[in-house]
């Protein structure tokens, strides 16, 4: 079932790069999504160890993936490494045509776009237009909204 076939002369190490920021992975939507994707045979890269800013392992995995899924959830806690990861994903979308799927689980996309609620911490904490622009761009990609319980 793997999608890791050459596309436009490129080969991929991963079918999916799963981007999330949740302190409790084992009891999260990201964990269940990871399980579902791997059960159907997809090769999924996920950072279980929450690598720190400056670690380029995630960047390499993003570049080596056909698809990136960004999960925005109510457990979001702005961190610079997560925001840099989003920037890299969007860069790959623009430069290589990588498929990017933003998922808004338990949050409204407009809160992310306008940086309200837990997403308001982004501009307060980092005062970075780069991150604001990245979140805005990510909310303008065609997406799926999950409301209620996914189980």
TrEMBL record:
Superkingdom of origin: Eukaryota
Domain TIR: 12-151
Keyword tags: NAD
GO biological process, one term: signal transduction
Protein name as catalogued: TIR domain-containing protein
Organism: Trifolium subterraneum
Source organism phylogeny: Eukaryota, Viridiplantae, Streptophyta, Embryophyta, Tracheophyta
């Amino acid at each position: 079932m793997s999608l890791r076939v050459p596309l436009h002369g490129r080969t991929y190490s991963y079918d999916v790069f799963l981007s999330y920021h949740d302190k409790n992975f084992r009891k999260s939507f990201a964990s269940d999504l990871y399980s579902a994707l791997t059960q159907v045979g997809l090769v999924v890269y996920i950072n279980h160890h929450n690598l720190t800013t400056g670690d380029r392992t995630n960047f390499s995995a993003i570049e080596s993936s056909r698809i990136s899924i960004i999960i925005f959830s109510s457990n979001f806690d702005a961190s610079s490494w997560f925001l840099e990861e989003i920037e890299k994903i969007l860069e790959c979308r623009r430069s290589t045509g990588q498929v990017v799927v933003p998922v808004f689980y338990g949050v409204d996309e407009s809160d992310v776009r306008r940086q309200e609620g837990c997403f308001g911490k982004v501009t307060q904490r980092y005062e970075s237009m780069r991150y604001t622009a990245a979140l805005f761009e990510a909310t303008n990609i065609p997406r799926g909204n999950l409301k209620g319980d996914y189980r």
